[in-house]
Amino acid sequence: MNRLFEHTNSTIAYYDAHADEFCAKTVVLDMSQLYAPFLEEIPPGGRILDLGCGSGRDSLAFLQRDYRVVSIDASAAMVAATSKLTGQTAMVVTFDEIPFDTEFDGIWASASLLHVSRRDLGAAFDRLTRALKHGGVLYVSFKYGDAERFEHGRFFNDMNEALLHSYLTNQPQLKLLRNWITDDIRSERSGVRQWLNATVKRCG
After folding, report:
1. Model's pTM, two decimal places?
2. In this structure, are residues 55 and 78 in contact, taking their beta carbons and an 8 Å threshold?
3. pLDDT band at residue 2, thresholds of 50, 70 and 90?
4. Which of 87, 157, 167, 179 could form a disulfide with 198 if both were Cys (CB 3.0 to 4.6 A apart)?
5. Residues 6 or more apart whose Cβ sits within 8 Å of residue 25
6. Residue 138, beta-bridge partner list
7. Burial status of residue 32 (CB atoms within 10 A of its CB: 0-12, 13-18, 19 or more)
8. 60-74 pLDDT, tens digit each
9. pLDDT at res. 191
10. How many Cβ atoms are within 10 Å of 20's Cβ, its own excluded?
11. Helix (H) or strand (E) holding 141
12. Is the separation of the CB atoms in 37 and 95 below 8 Å?
């Protein structure tokens, strides 16, 4: 398989090896406050791409709200978990293989693009912009900071407001709607780890 993005293999291997543990810790988290600013931009019954679907938690939440959902992840173990939880088939797709063209009202990229290196993030944004319908909305979240680093075999590209804005200036079709910082939803990390969240709209 041709992979254009750095560090992909070790990160996928981590999630394949730790899928049960990861899903147990994340599937129960209440993400409703983060859904709100994203879903208010999506028409009723709109089509959403869950990019890096993980446990399937968010795909299931959107399905329960009567949205149409396509779930993808680079980890086969995570795809299996999502398929089991949602009752619909998820797909193994890496960031460099995203095939969609003007198909989605919204793309939910929660804690997924943070595994793409800075060198390759612009190309990822290009593919996601193409996948959005005109007027469609992309939600992204990154661990707050300015480092590229490995943590227990996973690669992370931390992000702050200035870095995010620098990427968006190279994406003329994307308009920033809002960015905000939140504490980690996991109780043991609250006050320790912060996240940068943003919603952007395809205007071109």
Report:
1. 0.94
2. yes
3. very low
4. 179
5. 186
6. 107, 200
7. exposed
8. 999 999 999 999 999
9. 55
10. 11
11. strand 132-143
12. no
- Distance from C-alpha of 131 to C-alpha of 125, rounded to nearest angstrom: 10
Token reading at 89: 């088939």
CA distance 101 to 80: 25
- Domains of the chain, each with CATH number or no CATH: 8-202 (3.40.50.150)
Banded model confidence at residue 16, pLDDT cuts 50, 70, 90:
very high
72 contacts 51 by C-beta, under 8 angstroms: yes
Residue 142 CB neighbours (<10 A): 24
The answer to whether 115 and 12 are in contact (CB under 8 A) is no
Q: At what angle do helices 8-17 and 19-26 cross, to 10 degrees?
A: 80
Tokens of 166: 């620098």
- In this structure, which amino acid lies at residue 176? L
With contact defined as beta carbons under 8 Å apart, do 71 and 59 qualify? yes
d(CA 160, CA 175) in angstroms, rounded, equals 17
First to last CA, the chain: 32
What is the number of other CB atoms lying within 10 angstroms of the CB of residue 188?
A: 9
